[in-house]
Amino acid sequence: MTAERIEPNEDASRVMVIAAHPDDPEFGCGATIAKWANEGKHITYVLLTSGDKGSHDPAIRPGQLAAMREREQRDAADALGVENVVFLRYADGVLENTLALRGQLAGIIRHHKPHIVLAIDPWKTYQLHPDHRAAGYAALDAIWAAREWNLFAEQLVGDEDPWRVSEVYLFWTDCADHWEDVASTIDARIKALSCHVSQVGTDVEKLDERIRERARATGKEHGLEYAEDFKRIKL
Questions:
Q1: What is the pLDDT of residues 178-224, one digit of tens each?
Q2: How far is residue 158 from each of residues 153, 165, 212, measured CA to CA in Å?
Q3: What is 14-234's CATH topology?
Q4: Which of 38, 53, 120, 192 could in theory staple to 92 by disulfide, Cβ–Cβ 3.0 to 4.6 A?
Q5: pTM of the complete model
Q6: CA–CA dist 27, 36 (Å, integer)
Q7: C-alpha dihedral sign at 72, 146, 163, 169
Q8: How many whole angstroms separate alpha carbon 2 and alpha carbon 35?
C-alpha cells in the first residue's frame, strides 16, 4: 500500500491532541505535530493525567513526579510549536472513561473548537495499558458528544453551539490508512522527546537511533524516508 496523498485542508487550522500521559503525544505523533505547527496550525494538548506513577524510584513522591513531568511536557510542547497545554490531572494508572470525563472533554472541545483531533487508538490489538485504552475511548466519546445539541446541553450557554470535529487521527494503531511524511521534522520529535528526561533518560544518541529506526520502518513501504502512521476518520 502506498502512502495516502491528501491535499492540505486550509480550513483545518486548529488541532487538538488528547492523550493519557506526558510524552504520549511525542511518542505517538510528535513529528506530525511539529510539521503541522510549521504549516501554521494551532495545536492544543490535553493530557488526562500528569504521569504521577511513571517511576520506579521510591524516593520520588507522586506529586513531585507529576510536577516534574508537567514541566517536561511543557518543554517538549514548546520544542514542537504547540501553543496550549492543558492538564486535567486525573490519577495516573487508574484512568477510567467515565461520563464525567466525557463531559469535561466535550466541554474542552466545544471551547477550543478543533478541526482535527489526534488520539490513541483504543482498539489496538492487545493494548495492555488501561490508561491508553481509557484515553482513546474517552476522546472518541467526547468528540461525538461535543457535536450533539442535547448531550451536556448545560455547556451551551448563550449563543454557544455544539462543535463538530472534522477529522480524527488515531495513533498507535494496527489499522493505519494514512502516513505523514515527517522527514523534515523527525529532528524536532527527537528534541521534544529528549525533554522527557524522567522517562527516556539522558542518552540522546540512543533515543535518536530508536526513534529514527521506527519512523524509517514505518515509511519504508510507502516510499517515505521517515513517516508516522494513523487511522484517519472523517466525520
A1: 999 999 999 999 999 999 999 999 999 999 999 999 999 999 999 99
A2: 11, 21, 49
A3: Rossmann fold (3.40.50)
A4: 53
A5: 0.94
A6: 16
A7: positive
A8: 20
